[in-house]
Amino acid sequence: xxxxxxxxxxxxxxxxxxxxxxxVPVGTLAGTVLxxxxxxxxxxxxxxxxxxxxxxxxxxxxxxxxxxxxxxKTGEYDLRAAAGKVKSDWLxxxxxxxxxxxxxxxxxxxxxx
Length: 113
Known about the structure:
The chain is α+β, with helices and mostly antiparallel strands. The protein has one domain (25-109): Immunoglobulins (Immunoglobulin-like, Sandwich). Helix content is 18%, strand content 48%. The protein is built from 1 helix and 8 strands, in the order αββββββββ. Strands 1, 2, 3, 4, 5, 6, 7 and 8 form an 8-stranded mixed sheet that branches. A hairpin with a 6-residue loop joins strand 2 (45-50) and strand 3 (57-60). The radius of gyration is 20 Å and the shape is elongated.
């Protein structure tokens, strides 16, 4: 019985420290969407996915054309913006580093639909 109680006490004391060390390293990807004339694009949709095409997610730019994907697992990602029927090329293999912000610029191209 004493061993069980000791194990439970140790678990309660050590579990938070173990959980902290088990966290996955994360970083942030941020940037700006610009039109073909270099002006910021508000309310553009920005899509991120792994470089293997998995786990797509999207956000929308603010009034200054800025966007952010925070707390993403470190690794390589692909990114694309769209506003209406106009899109950007895919930016491929953008690296998100642990505890850092990677900045990118996406340019909408009227020729890409």
